[in-house]
Prior knowledge:
The complex is a heterodimer of chains A (226) and B (402). Chain A is of the alpha/beta class. Chain A contains 7 helices and 10 strands. Chain A has one domain (35-63, 70-225): Rossmann fold. Chain A has a 6-stranded mixed beta sheet with strand order 6-7-8-3-9-10, sandwiched between helices. A 4-stranded antiparallel beta sheet of chain A has the order 2-1-4-5, covered by helices on one side. In chain A, strand 4 (62-67) and strand 5 form a beta hairpin. Helix content of chain B is 53%, strand content 20%. In chain B, the strands form 2 sheets. A 6-stranded mixed barrel of chain B has the order 2-3-8-5-7-6, surrounded by 4 helices. A two-stranded antiparallel sheet of chain B has the order 11-12.
Amino acid sequence: MHKLFQGKDVTLSYMMDDVKVEALKNLSFEIDSGNFTCLAGASGSGKSTLLNLLGLIEPMQAGEIKYLGRSTAELNENELNRIRRFEIGFVFQSFHLIDVLTAEENVEYFLVRQGVANELRKELVRSALEWVGLGDHVRKRPGQMSGGQRQRVAIARALAKQPRVILADEPTANLDSKTGDDVLQLLLGLCRDRGCSVVMASHDPQAMKLADCLIRLRDGQMIEEK
Amino acid sequence: MLLTVAVRSLLRNKRRTAVTLATVAVGTAALFLFRGFNTGLLYEYRNNAVHAHYGNGQINTAGYRDKVLAKPWEAWIENPQSVLESLLKIPGVEKVFPRVEFAALVSNGTRSLGSRGVGIDGRSESDFFYTINIVEGAALRDSADGIVLGRGLAHSLDVKVGSRVTLLSNTIHGTLNGADFDVVGIFHTGSRELDDAFFQIQLPEAQRLLDSSRVEKISVGLSHHNDWPRVEREIEEKISGLEATPFEILDKIYYQNSVDFLNAQYAIVRAIILFVVILGIFNTATSAILERTQEIGMLRANGESKKDILLLIGIEGGFAACLGAILGILSVVVLNSTLLRDGFFMPPGPGITRSFKTFIELQVGMALEAGALVLVAGVLGSLLAATKVLRTSISYALRQVG
């Protein structure tokens, strides 16, 4: 099993109301490919910040993160965009769907941008939406769906891209426990059944229990790695 | 897909979209209307210049207008009748008006003034040159020994319609010649230079005074002004030794300067309107884009580059600008065919002493120009608004509350 991410002395801080907040402090870690990895910790522990660094959407400040053995600091803007477009799928806490597009179109959007041919694209969209159980809701817009359904569309969107890794930032936080469990099972299924690496930031005990690998953070520092 | 997002994004906030469309529509309408108004004015100015004095253009012997000659009559047009016949055979040439211009003394018996006379075909000119400002009496028409004086000249001589004046002039051989004329009319061109010194008499009388059968120039009246470049080309090809000059050059002081003035004025107004449109679009687009900061963050997190986002926002801005421009153009067309259909009166313009009626002259090219300019302004306003969001990091954009 090769290393998907390797972090060494990762440190990141930001200013909040003139106060310097140290979000991550000298964090070193390894995440294997094909695993379901859970970044756990209370709010403000730095798990979302770490997830953003792994997703190449937050610039590095100090230390090093390697993606598939290559330092992310070496990647130029075009390479970062290419990796984000083809190799990483995101699932956000607030879903972040495009309001004016239907479920089907939301899933299809990035496939169009990837340049996937029309027939294959339609097939990928259909199978992704069916896999998340929304085969009958393809024409609904986000405003016409429940929170759980929206998160399923977000998962289908990430899945349809056929990424190497899906990064999920507290995907169950805005959902009731039953819907949250369903979403968790979907993400777990992505990893187990489809061989997609999943890194999920969560403080859900169930997610921590099911994860292949657990990285527990407190105040930007790792307190446990399993 | 980008187009789908762009089109549907217009429906996200209908009130804001309405404001955007209104801004663009008003900008387009203002540009289109102002351009049409200027063109209408220039049509009137051109009409006045062509039908007051110059015709659509003028024929001289080649090089005559560029030289100062000791004996200018030697370079006048010989055998004018055959030239006139040749000119009338050229398609588009409707009328031809032979003329001579000469220096003379005008005397009322007690006072003599140096002046410049023009010998004209009074009858044919009176029909074509209908916008000359006759302020007293009438045009020359058939009056064989009639004279029409400039208002300043008539005033200096203290003569009125019905008075008799004597003209003294040198023949081309250098001997003195003279004749008496009845004042039949007084004209006013608006140009002091002309009004204080010019008079018109019949061409045969002028030729008798000068003892020459030649004519200095031939003014040409066309059925359609836009035919001039072709007619000019044909004249110079078919009749050797002549050159044709369009009225814009003959009347540079009034007409061409008016064209230049109005064009400069339009350029300034256009810049102001486009600036206002850019500001208006920037303002509404900024609100719209700020509300979509999270969405833009999500798009970028999924690999959309800054250029991709600018393209998306540009398409949205362009689409809104297109719709607004079409609305603006249609509203001007409707306005011009209803409320402005009968035109409106304007105070006297350059070279004109009376109020005149003008119309908004709309042309397809103007609509396209106005639409294209506002489209560019709309896209620019949107892109400027987008740059603010694109300066923030992706993770910061994703954290913003929608």
